[in-house]
Write a structure and sequence with these properties.
234 residues; alpha/beta; Rossmann fold; 6-stranded mixed sheet; 4-stranded antiparallel sheet; globular
Length: 234
């Protein structure tokens, strides 16, 4: 099994506050790995560390075997990490089409271009000339994922993609992630929505107070009810 992303011994601080403690996990090519845990356990900080937005104090981040911990965010994007933050951050004054074009990373090649991306996001096809600020929350979430794909990432990182979305949109997002998996996309996501995670993930990594406390394949995790109650309060 090829691990396209390997994280080892990640320690990250905000000032004097130590947030991540020796966090480590692997992301196999073509699989979906889900970081889970309650609010404040370090999921977003892990992603910010991976992207160079909050550089780790120590640890190793290897993308396709290349050490890249501490690189600035634009170089992490060029290396192949596509990040969809929790707050979406679309470019509101620009159209859907312009937002998608902003996602292109010169020199990166792959299966994703305007035609293939819009084929996966039919909801956006009719809105290409609308400003991003006029879209609903669910449509904006789809746009941010589509924009990240335009950069042909090696790993697509989704931070709490279902946050604040209606059950109908969550269902559409679940179907989208499954389609992306079928297209061979490697996905790393943070999620609290247990049913959503169960539907899309191949593996689960549980965080608690900045530590990795449990790892399991999804079939095993489905049966670990006590672990779910302890760390997810379900």
């Amino acid at each position: 099994m090829e691990h396209i992303l390997t994280v080892t011994g990640l320690n990250t601080c905000y000032g004097r506050s130590h947030i991540l403690f020796d966090v480590g996990f692997d992301v196999p090519r073509g699989e979906t790995v889900c970081l889970m845990g309650r609010n404040g356990v370090g999921k977003t900080t892990t992603f910010r560390s991976l992207m160079g937005l909050t550089p780790p104090k120590s640890g190793r981040i290897a993308l396709k075997g290349r050490q890249c911990a501490g690189l600035p965010s634009y170089r992490m994007a060029r290396a192949g990490l596509g990040f969809v933050p929790e707050d979406r951050r679309i470019f509101g004054p620009f159209t859907v089409l312009e937002n998608l074009e902003f996602g292109v990373i010169p020199g990166r090649q792959g299966i994703w271009n305007l035609d293939t991306v819009l084929a996966q996001f039919p909801i956006l096809k009719n809105f290409t000339n609308r400003n991003g600020s006029t879209l609903s929350g669910g449509e904006q979430q789809m746009l941010t994922i589509a924009r990240a794909l335009m950069g042909n990432p090696e790993v697509l990182i989704l931070d709490e993609p279902t946050e604040g979305l209606s059950p109908v949109i969550v269902g559409e997002l679940k179907d989208l992630v499954i389609r992306l998996k079928e297209a061979g996309t490697t996905i790393l996501l943070a999620e609290q929505h247990l049913k959503f995670a169960m539907a899309v993930a191949d593996r689960v990594v549980l965080l608690d107070k900045g530590h990795v406390v449990h790892r399991a394949d999804i079939a095993t995790f489905r049966e670990e009810k006590e672990i779910q109650r302890k760390y997810l309060a379900v």
